Amino acid sequence: MRIALVFTVAFLFFVACSSSDTLDPSMSLESLTGTEIVSRASDALAAVSTFRFTLSHDEGNTVLTNGIEVQKVTGTALMPDNYTLDADTLVAGFFVNTQVILIDQDTYMTNPITRIWQQLEPGTSPFGSFNPASLVANILAQIENPLSSSSTNQGEYVVTGKLPAVVLKSLTGGVDESAPDLDVRVTVDGDSFVPVGARITGRATSAEQGDLVRTVRLFEFNTAITIEPPI
């Protein structure tokens, strides 16, 4: 009886291990170079119609050229030029939450005091240059010496490399051209090849700290998203 029990346990253990090996998504990933992964990710991003995104920081804050510090942003994107933003910021040291809707050339923003929506004059939006799709597309287009590395998550590719600070102009509105190159780590879905994240280390403006770490995440691609004027 004891021998039979031991045999049964050993057999189940063997089956479990075999099943685990079979279901491991990373086993089916195609072997690709960093350049090949970046090329496919660029094509996949260009075909996306909608997505949701977040911008967060592990160290420091993104500082826009107008002096606003951005702590965290969540939002939606309806390609090519429609976005919603929910931004936690610091303005002159005071916390301000701002909601923004960009529809083509029109920008709407909540008043930081009354919370009432208002349409802004062209060129006056503090987030006028913010474009998450352009940001990620520019990262893929300008990453230097992309290297494929192992991922901690199964079913994903990871590419590391260097970026010139000018790549972040669509985020900050302007850059310090003397800033050193940025370190970047791009994560790409192994099935669809859409880029799902980018971790960027380094400053882009003179007001930012050198060890600033920004993380951009993209998710929920090609879902039903409607962006309309709030007023």
Could you explain the architecture of this structure?
By secondary structure, this protein is α+β, with helices and mostly antiparallel strands. The chain has helices spanning 2-23, 34-46, 132-142, 169-172, and strands spanning 50-59, 62-63, 69-78, 82-91, 94-103, 106-110, 117-119, 144-149, 156-163, 182-189, 195-201, 213-219. Strands 1, 2, 3, 4, 5, 6, 7, 8, 9, 10, 11 and 12 form a 12-stranded antiparallel β-sheet that branches. It is globular, with a radius of gyration of 22 Å.
Which key features would you list for this structure?
231 residues; alpha+beta; twelve-stranded antiparallel sheet; 4 helices; 12 strands; disordered N terminus
How many angstroms does the end-to-end distance come to? Answer: 77 Å
How many individual helices?
A: 4
**Fraction of residues in helix:** 10-25%
Order of helices and strands: HHEEEEEEEHEEHEEE
The total strand number stands at 12
Number of domains: 1
Structural class: alpha+beta
Low-confidence stretches: 1-26
What multimeric state do the chains show? Answer: single chain
